[in-house]
Design a protein that fits this description.
This protein has 244 residues and is of the alpha/beta class. The protein is 42% helix and 21% strand. It has helices at 41-44, 47-56, 68-73, 80-105, 120-131, 158-163, 165-168, 177-182, 199-211, 229-243; strands spanning 3-10, 15-22, 27-32, 60-65, 113-118, 136-142, 186-191, 216-220. An eight-stranded mixed beta sheet has the order 1-2-4-3-5-6-7-8, sandwiched between helices. Helix 2 (47-56) runs parallel beside helix 10 (229-243). The radius of gyration is 17 Å and the shape is globular. It starts with a strand and ends with a helix.
Length: 244
């Protein structure tokens, strides 16, 4: 299996960022790490091994970035406003830097991406498709944490508002191009019902999306699936095998 690791300086994030690519051909999947993860977390946690049959068959090519925003959220020394700023800048990095890099690597100026993530990575996957439905066609959100209001210390700056689908999706203009595109996208909200899971979060997102006629589905995997990598290693290959 071919692997490539790339690093560049992001002016939006004001730091170096790394992206790992696994595979040589196939549908591009932007796979976000968990809160404290880096570009190679998915490999260390054996997700790439779980996806390898699809990667080796040329059906899937996986791109995984550093979790810059996630690391900011869990940094207790950062202010709530700064965390929201980093999250919004991270979205700009994804759309303005990472998506074009992936498209160049795929030799296509307009190829549409799949995206996925677990835990806080699910939030980034959801945000990517909701903010940029011109680039992302499907999001697989596994065991997600979707509402960061509790981390905002009572603040609600614009950086937070526009980075949070639960908050900006209800206010999208009815006849906007963004909402029209979103209504032709699809979001899977997968969750276990075992230890440390919170399926209520998935249902809240489903309600928010459904109220705007954005296609989505909640998949509950039962009480024997915990908020942990064995669950996600079972989930993602199943969904990717259906989509590629």
């Amino acid at each position: 299996m071919e692997k490539l690791r790339s690093t560049w300086y992001s002016p939006r994030l004001r730091q170096d960022v790394t992206v790992a690519r696994f595979g040589h051909y196939g549908a591009p999947l932007l796979l976000f790490p968990t809160a404290g993860g880096d570009a190679e977390e998915c490999e260390r946690m054996l997700m790439i091994r779980a996806l390898r049959p699809l990667i080796d068959a040329g059906r899937l090519k996986v791109y995984s970035p550093d979790s810059v925003a996630g690391q900011a959220w869990i940094d207790m020394d950062q202010s709530a406003r700064h965390k929201a700023w980093v999250q919004n800048q991270y979205d700009g990095y994804v759309y303005e830097e990472l998506v074009p890099a992936i498209r160049r690597d795929c030799h296509s100026d307009d190829i549409e991406l799949l995206t996925a993530g677990s835990s806080l990575g699910a939030f980034n996957a959801l945000t990517s498709v909701c903010r940029h439905p011109d680039a992302f066609k499907t999001a697989v959100c596994m065991s997600g944490s979707y509402d960061f209001t509790g981390w905002m210390d009572g603040h609600h700056p614009l950086d937070f508002h526009y980075a949070s689908p639960l908050h900006f999706v209800p206010h999208l203009e009815e006849h906007s191009e963004q909402l029209a595109r979103l209504r032709n996208r699809f979001v899977i909200l997968a969750a276990g019902e075992g230890r440390w899971e919170n399926p209520a979060g998935a249902w809240r997102v489903a309600s928010t999306l459904g109220a705007r006629s954005i296609p989505n589905r909640v998949d509950l995997w039962g009480p024997d699936h915990d908020h942990d990598w064995p669950t996600w290693r079972e989930m993602l290959p199943k969904y990717m095998s259906e989509m590629t």
